[in-house]
Amino acid sequence: MRQVFLLPGLASDAQLWRDQIPSLAARGYQPVVSDVHARFATLPEMAAALLSENSGPLVLVGTSMGGILALEVFRQAPSRVAAMALLGSTARPDTAQMRQLREDAIVLLEQGRALEVLRANVPFAFHSSRVGDAGLVQGYLDMVMRAGADQLIVQNRAIMARADSRPLLSTIGCPFLMMWGDSDALTPPECAREIVAAIAHAEYEELPQCGHLLTWECPGQVNARLIKWLDALMTPPPKQTSPS
Prior knowledge:
Structural class: alpha/beta
Number of strands: 6
Largest sheet: 6 strands, parallel
Order of helices and strands: EHEHEHEHHHHEHEHH
Mean pLDDT: 95
Strand content: 5-15%
Helix content: 40-55%
């Protein structure tokens, strides 16, 4: 199980994992960035494709929408999920207020105002100390604009239609890691803490002075915690010795 499936967030691509891929590869893992979120219109379809296109047990690491997708994969095939890590994600469905915000954004996207929508989202995507980091912000804008307005619309609708995954949480028996930023404005910390509280064996890490984009904002901390967790998965338990 050296293969690790990295599930990007909404309208994101492999660039979101730019700091994780080389670190995982250097440790002997085989990071695979999934693109099913860009090829299918609903979360159930995305999850089904991930399962059908890959055989054997899956180690899933998902951030934001990618975490939501990981839970959908577990819903469809719990025995196929060997381990799961969620970063800045939630098990909750959208609130009515959030659905309305997405609908309003979709109207602007359909009018060709994608960059306007994304610029307004920057203060919610990053910790306040990084909003002024021109390189970081431009990288975010460039990445999402590569996906384009059509993908933004499709993926937002997929997120809006997602199931409530909270009833699943107590059934998750595989190794589980939860990481989140203490200042995440898009998936507030209480969403992550709710998941940890429902999974008795869950490991977790709260990153200080970090917003929603953990993999870019705190790459060193994310890499260290993720690799520590993966190494523990791959280390066989010590052999029991018989008393002489």
